[in-house]
Design goal:
By secondary structure, the protein is α+β, with helices and mostly antiparallel strands. It is built from 5 helices and 4 strands; from the N terminus they run αββββαααα. The relative contact order is 0.17.
């Protein structure tokens, strides 16, 4: 109930809440936008919350399929370039065209670069969504506290 109220109250956020899972993402963002997932488990002293934030799983699976297809294409190009299979090989003219030969590898590099650019553009969403969920659920850390960060001091 608290998570649903926080999702409705925040204008920039959309999400869903069930008994065991809360998903929250910002309304406006790029396709690699961050999704915060809170898995809720019943425990003897209250409700346990496992909070993660990252790229939407649909986008991740699409990216893996995209990269897998271009990896398979790169392997087929390599087999054809090296003339391993007699009936499946490039002609002598095609073997000299480096742009044609390097296109699958360039596509993989561009795909990885776009994913990294999207993650960079969405870098501020994770902490915002985490704070929203922690504040909405009144969550308190359990277990061993994190070590303090060293303070930045100037040496002169």
């Amino acid at each position: 109930m608290k998570a649903e109220a926080a999702i409705v109250a925040e204008a920039d956020v959309v999400g869903m809440a069930t008994d065991s899972l809360v998903l929250v993402r910002k309304l406006k963002g790029n396709m690699f936008q961050t999704v915060a997932r809170a898995k809720l488990t019943k425990e003897s002293d209250g409700t346990g919350i496992a909070l993660t934030a990252g790229m939407d799983r649909v986008v991740f699976v699409f990216g893996c399929v995209f990269l897998g297809a271009f990896l398979a294409l790169s392997i087929m190009y390599l087999v054809a370039y090296l003339r391993i299979i007699q009936s499946f090989q490039f002609s002598d003219a095609d073997r000299k065209d480096w742009l044609f030969l390097s296109m699958p590898v360039l596509s993989m590099v561009i795909g990885v670069a776009l994913a990294q650019l999207g993650r960079y553009a969405a870098r501020d969403e994770g902490p915002f969504l985490r704070r929203l969920l922690v504040d909405a659920l009144d969550a308190k850390p359990k277990g061993k506290p994190a070590p303090p960060k060293p303070s930045a001091t100037k040496c002169t």
